């Protein structure tokens, strides 16, 4: 048998190109569970893989797609049965291993989670890695004692996948959310998700020249990194918490130890790649209880495999907001 996939290859000059191909099943990597993929998502990491950036892909030809959802075809893992709805995020699938931009995938059972009954595969991929990462960040704030009564929570990159999900989920949990975004065209949608105030990215990046600015927020979820994270750290209230999720804005920032030793700030990194099975199941169950398709729907865009190379370039330039869900079975476009 064969399956349909977006195959990325690199030529002798180091240039990458992705084409839709039929791939023999025997070329699939080993695994306990064979999944018929119904939906996947286009994430920032996927865009890097398709563009040949970030040194994420180790071997070519490659199939990107760091998350997917579908139904089990066959399994030697007793936790899964044929026809069961499952999802996968992380474990370097789509980076070091073939991923979800295909109609089938064979993976280790330990990497999967059973989908909650309230989530269909498409809804699961609207949430995807972005929603899962946002949920982990919110759980980290909760574990650190940040409640809806602690004060405002600021979310950076609020027009992107992780940021927009964090705004929606925090608002659903009763938090007062301040959103930071450089996408004015998305401000109305960000407010619909539950943000009660929006700050422009350029306003946030204005440098005071001081090690600390006036304290404004009890906590933050930063999905951008770089200089923006540095500015956020200077503005968190004493005893506050920051969860760092992304690095689209860069790996480095200028700062000092002042927020940590003078205000007792805690900075937590959120790793969504290799979380234990029980943590992933719990996060997905909580996501299923909080997600409102009617609220997030306007920020969802559907795509097919043949459109992903162009959409990846647009993603890297900051031109894609919300979530892109990919239907690998659709060959009409």
From TrEMBL:
Enoyl reductase (ER) domain: residues covered: 16-326
Gene3D superfamilies: Medium-chain alcohol dehydrogenases, catalytic domain (3.90.180.10), NAD(P)-binding Rossmann-like Domain (3.40.50.720)
EC id: 1.3.1.95
UniProt keywords, alphabetically: Oxidoreductase
A Pfam family hit: ADH_N
SMART domains recorded: PKS_ER
Domain of life per record: Bacteria
InterPro entries attached to this UniProt entry: Acrylyl-CoA_reductase_AcuI (IPR014188), ADH-like_C (IPR013149), ADH-like_N (IPR013154), ER (IPR020843), GroES-like_sf (IPR011032), NAD(P)-bd_dom_sf (IPR036291), Zn-ADH-like_protein (IPR051397)
Any GO molecular function: acryloyl-CoA reductase (NADPH) activity
SUPFAM superfamilies the record matches: GroES-like (SSF50129), NAD(P)-binding Rossmann-fold domains (SSF51735)
Protein known as: Acryloyl-CoA reductase
Biological source species: Arsenicitalea aurantiaca
Lineage: Bacteria, Pseudomonadati, Pseudomonadota, Alphaproteobacteria, Hyphomicrobiales
């Amino acid at each position: 048998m064969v399956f349909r996939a977006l195959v990325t290859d690199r030529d002798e000059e180091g240039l990458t190109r992705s084409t839709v191909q039929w791939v023999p099943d025997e070329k699939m990597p080993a695994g306990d569970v064979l999944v018929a993929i119904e939906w996947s998502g286009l994430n920032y990491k996927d865009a890097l893989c398709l563009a040949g950036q970030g040194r994420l892909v180790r071997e070519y030809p490659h199939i990107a797609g760091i998350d997917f959802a579908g139904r089990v075809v066959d399994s030697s893992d007793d936790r899964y049965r044929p026809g069961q709805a499952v999802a996968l995020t992380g474990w370097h699938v789509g980076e070091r291993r073939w991923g979800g931009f295909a109609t089938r995938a064979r993976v280790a059972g330990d990497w999967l989670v059973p989908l909650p009954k309230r989530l269909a595969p498409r809804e699961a991929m609207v949430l995807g890695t972005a929603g899962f990462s946002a949920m982990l960040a919110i759980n980290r704030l909760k574990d650190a004692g940040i409640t809806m009564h602690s004060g405002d929570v600021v979310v950076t990159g609020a027009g992107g996948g992780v940021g927009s999900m964090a705004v929606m989920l925090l608002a659903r949990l009763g938090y007062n959310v301040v959103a930071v975004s450089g996408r004015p065209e998305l401000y109305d949608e960000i407010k619909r998700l539950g943000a009660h105030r929006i700050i422009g990215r350029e306003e946030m990046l204005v440098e005071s020249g001081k090690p600390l600015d006036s304290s404004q927020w009890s906590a933050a979820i930063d999905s951008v990194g770089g200089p923006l994270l540095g500015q956020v750290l200077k503005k968190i209230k004493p005893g506050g918490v920051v969860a760092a999720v992304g690095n689209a804005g860069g790996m480095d920032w200028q700062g000092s130890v002042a927020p940590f030793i003078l205000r007792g700030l805690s900075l937590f990194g959120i790793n969504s790649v290799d979380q234990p099975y029980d943590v992933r199941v719990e996060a997905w169950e909580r996501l299923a209880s909080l997600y409102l398709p009617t609220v997030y729907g306007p920020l969802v865009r559907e795509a097919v495999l043949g459109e992903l190379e162009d959409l990846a370039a647009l993603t890297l330039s900051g031109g894609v907001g919300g979530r892109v869900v990919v239907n690998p079975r659709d060959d009409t476009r």
